[in-house]
């Protein structure tokens, strides 16, 4: 009956959509959202521990009942009619007690259902509140739950706001630990993101601004690198001048010059060009060339690291999309069955 009424409501809504502003519809997957909430995982874990304990108690009672039945079967020929009836009444009492206990723990109104409701309901209420806020902010007319009894034969991915609800839920949990200044900054950021998502023109403009910002930061980085290189060269020259001045002061200039002349005539193996195993001559680099080579190597490593991070992000996004698609296909298959 509920589905029929919803279907009739949809017909009337879409019949009037031509003259109205149009209907904005979205949907969520409650099961997907709950899986992303750490509190829900903790609650389910606690419930599973209790359920496991109850199952062990039921198994113990069932073993005791089987023992009574086996004993009666073995001793029946030795017992009087009155004792047999007494044993059968005891067994019937144990069977009823076992069934009652199973019903109490795992029945439709049992402890498992009740405690699950107690543990999960606060989280669901929080999600419902966030969904209502999202509906008001983004002006949705309807938001459905894909995992509910309402059958959805098809739903376009662009209308799925589950990830947005998870984001808002995580944000609301973080708000409790933030200061007023941090909250204000977060609200401004969220408002900007929402305006970008709702308006393609704003998104394009924001992309242009981000590109300009990235180019500006790159230019600043290159300038800082050039300044640092100039400072290093100047520091090296200054140190060389100080060393020469100190040498003149100590009267070691002639000795130094003679040493330099000797080095020119008898150049050590360390100052000569090195020959590799393949017979190629490896030219010895100057200090400036060595420093530049180190800078180039460092920049190359940074670029490789950035590229690896980008590939990792793409892989994570692809895995997430594949998992979500597989879950949707599984849900559709289960509904069809």
UniProtKB/TrEMBL annotation:
Keyword Cytoplasm on entry: no
Keyword hit for Coiled coil: yes
First and last residue of the signal peptide: 1-17
Coiled coil: 37-104, 169-236
InterPro entries assigned: Chaperone_Skp (IPR005632), Skp_dom_sf (IPR024930)
Similarity annotation: Belongs to the Skp family.
The protein's name: OmpH family outer membrane protein
